[in-house]
Amino acid sequence: MRPSHRSADELRPVTIERNVARYAEGSCLIKFGGTHVLCTASLEDKPPAWLRGQGRGWVTAEYAMLPRATHTRTKRESTSGKQSGRTQEIQRLIGRSLRAVTNLQALGERQITLDCDVIQADGGTRTASITGAWVALHDCLKWMHGRSIIKDHPLRDHIAAISCGISNGEAVLDLDYAEDSAAETDANFVMTGGGSLVEVQATAEAAVFTDVQLLAMMTLAKVGITKLIELQKNAVA
């Protein structure tokens, strides 16, 4: 039995609440069980300096965990003067994931920044961030389209992410912290609404894993991401 008493293919309760930040062009609060992430999308009417004059835009992301998102207070990275390697890795993953389903040419010479701030962490913060950031980006682009800033909606597809793992020799979906910290293998899958893979991160923690186990985790991930994309569709309908 899993610590959360869920079946192997069962997600934690997931909710998506839109328009939670008054001033952002797009925003949502996404909850994966005990993991809560505030996602906002902010529009700048210019691209990054290295992209100017090329007629296309950019989508990027920043990720942060609030000091008491975890059991003990963690120091703000801004006070230390640099971001951790983990933070940099996660925000690059979020940016890559959102760009994979965005027509940057249709965006024009503009930049959208997705800020993903973890209010409360209980495992799967990066996957919740990606799934919620898509909703914030969607609403930002809808805001732009409604004001004739862009002619066409640049989003090509949905995108969502979920964690999987091997726990007690069994493939399981959507690990919380208690399960993640003890899992033999930890993996994250990012997939489009059409079922294509954007990124797979899989690491042997306590034991190596086989190709059969990897396929089992991917099968579970597809089930979970299908459910998450349905929640996205319901949220933005």
Automatic annotation (TrEMBL):
<keyword id="KW-0819">tRNA processing</keyword>
<feature type="binding site">
    <location>
        <position position="86"/>
    </location>
    <ligand>
        <name>phosphate</name>
    </ligand>
</feature>
<dbReference type="InterPro" id="IPR015847">
    <property type="entry name" value="ExoRNase_PH_dom2"/>
</dbReference>
<dbReference type="InterPro" id="IPR020568">
    <property type="entry name" value="Ribosomal_Su5_D2-typ_SF"/>
</dbReference>
<dbReference type="InterPro" id="IPR001247">
    <property type="entry name" value="ExoRNase_PH_dom1"/>
</dbReference>
<keyword id="KW-0808">Transferase</keyword>
<comment type="subunit">
    <text>Homohexameric ring arranged as a trimer of dimers.</text>
</comment>
<feature type="domain" description="Exoribonuclease phosphorolytic">
    <location>
        <begin position="159"/>
        <end position="222"/>
    </location>
</feature>
<dbReference type="InterPro" id="IPR002381">
    <property type="entry name" value="RNase_PH_bac-type"/>
</dbReference>
<keyword id="KW-0694">RNA-binding</keyword>
<dbReference type="InterPro" id="IPR018336">
    <property type="entry name" value="RNase_PH_CS"/>
</dbReference>
<dbReference type="InterPro" id="IPR050080">
    <property type="entry name" value="RNase_PH"/>
</dbReference>
<keyword id="KW-0698">rRNA processing</keyword>
<comment type="similarity">
    <text>Belongs to the RNase PH family.</text>
</comment>
<keyword id="KW-0820">tRNA-binding</keyword>
<dbReference type="Pfam" id="PF01138">
    <property type="entry name" value="RNase_PH"/>
</dbReference>
<comment type="function">
    <text>Phosphorolytic 3'-5' exoribonuclease that plays an important role in tRNA 3'-end maturation. Removes nucleotide residues following the 3'-CCA terminus of tRNAs; can also add nucleotides to the ends of RNA molecules by using nucleoside diphosphates as substrates, but this may not be physiologically important. Probably plays a role in initiation of 16S rRNA degradation (leading to ribosome degradation) during starvation.</text>
</comment>
<feature type="binding site">
    <location>
        <begin position="124"/>
        <end position="126"/>
    </location>
    <ligand>
        <name>phosphate</name>
    </ligand>
</feature>
<feature type="domain" description="Exoribonuclease phosphorolytic">
    <location>
        <begin position="10"/>
        <end position="140"/>
    </location>
</feature>
<dbReference type="Pfam" id="PF03725">
    <property type="entry name" value="RNase_PH_C"/>
</dbReference>
<dbReference type="InterPro" id="IPR027408">
    <property type="entry name" value="PNPase/RNase_PH_dom_sf"/>
</dbReference>
<keyword id="KW-0548">Nucleotidyltransferase</keyword>
<protein>
    <recommendedName>
        <fullName>Ribonuclease PH</fullName>
        <ecNumber>2.7.7.56</ecNumber>
    </recommendedName>
</protein>
<dbReference type="InterPro" id="IPR036345">
    <property type="entry name" value="ExoRNase_PH_dom2_sf"/>
</dbReference>
<feature type="region of interest" description="Disordered">
    <location>
        <begin position="69"/>
        <end position="88"/>
    </location>
</feature>
